[in-house]
Amino acid sequence: MKKLILTCALVTFGLMSFAQSLNTxxxxxxxAGFQLLFxxxxxxxxxxxxxxxxIGNCWTVEDGVISFDMTKKERGDLITDAEFENYDxxxxxxxxxxxNSGIIFNVTEDLKYHSTYxxxxxxxxxxxxxxxxxxxxxxRSGDLYDLIKSSSEPVKPVGEWNTARIVCNRGLLxxxxxxxxxxxxxxxxxxxxxxxxxxxxxxxxxxxxxxxxRIALQDHGNPVWFRNIKIKKL
Length: 234
What we know:
The chain is an alpha+beta fold. The chain has a single domain (25-233), classed as Sandwich (Jelly Rolls), CATH 2.60.120.560. Helices cover 15% and strands 33% of the residues. A hairpin with a 2-residue loop joins β11 (172-177) and β12 (180-186). It is globular.
């Protein structure tokens, strides 16, 4: 009985310690210059795309996690108040069964653009096996959506947490999924323009032009969860 009580106490302590470590910076990260973009309690620093100061009720915070609720009426991508240029960004995400979402970056916020994807590239978030996009080349988790297929697929099963990392630094773009570099390209050269011309974004003249912008968590109509959102200016 004593062993059982001790085991339960250790498990509880471990869970409490893990919960307390969510949405925080380590001493090493602080020294390196990282900052939190999500405090784990509120959506301060975020708003709905093209609605400054407003957050649709589809986005909520519970137990240190940003959640998307597809049943709510006030919809739209969740986007940072601040713009960023030359940065190292990371976020943990978990997708629902058959779900689709994404992390869209270098976004220009302007009423003449109806969506974040009119200007910003996307790192795909997807249930590869359950969503129809999983059957499309360069539409799978970790891909630079509709532009570059991941070099490998270190994505975890649906329901588990994944870590995405996006590094934009003076024209060099790198995407990492669960610690593995899956995409690397320049976004300031002729090849970048050629890729866009061969993609679904070819008729969006402002797409992929920005060297800086806001970062968005996509409302694609499916439940999705985000936590541990951090950035370092380079």
